[in-house]
């Protein structure tokens, strides 16, 4: 190898190239400000119009609402399982001390999510959520095959840093929004769903007035939270794939808004219920993305 070739290969990247790489996935601050302003305005508007909006759009027989209720959570659950798979695959090979606890966690999470997602399919098809007694053996067989594939993958493959970052942000959104925010607030807020209101709507409550611990669980929306778990997909295209990034952003936004709208149409949630879940998803996305971006920039700076 010639000296000039070795020199070209070892020469540090120019500042402009480093800047381009570091900022290709950064979230524009003006975009965050615009989204925060729109969200705040909608929160104020829905505080006074939640009931009237639901009265105008709810249709118990809407096919759109039924499909959203039946299948709206499944893509988000699938994204979480894949993200856990990526994290396990990349870390098990590098840190043997973490392999056993990660395996235990993966088995538990994959079992729970897989059971719930398959039960959603069964419930939508036959109208019953209790499918395990009849088809439980297929679930365990599928889990065993999945774990075998996982074991082989952890020994033969490693995902790219870009996919690894996507996976970590996906799991971060799921933990912060789906598990902590939604599942903590729901039982404490006690908001009655629109379809469970009495004929006079006397038991309706606006989003800013928690009702305490009750059987009601309208606020916030779990379906909407899972719908926006797909947000990190916009980070997968490379810095030069602007067209693909825009296409993915449109699809993700369409899905998230579609799930949120479908829940309102079905009478399962008010507009503010899905608004808060959506806002929490974007906030979690921005937090984890910025944190990982800072870590990446810091690590790059050490080698300049």
Task: Give a description of the structure.
The chain has 304 residues and is mainly alpha-helical. It has one domain. 72% of the residues lie in helices and 0% in strands. The chain has eleven helices and no strands. The longest helix is centred in the last third of the chain and has 32 residues, at 271-302. The chain starts with a helix and ends with a helix.
How can the largest sheet be summarized? none
Number of individual domains: 1
Query: Strand tally, please?
Result: 0
Helical fraction: over 70%
Overall geometry: globular
Give the topology, please.
Blueprint: H1 3-10, H2 15-23, H3 29-57, H4 63-71, H5 74-92, H6 99-126, H7 132-156, H8 161-189, H9 222-227, H10 242-265, H11 271-302
Helix pairs in contact: 3-11, 4-10, 5-6, 5-7, 5-8, 6-7, 8-11, 10-11
Structure summarized in a few sentences:
The protein is mostly helical. Helices cover 72% and strands 0% of the residues.
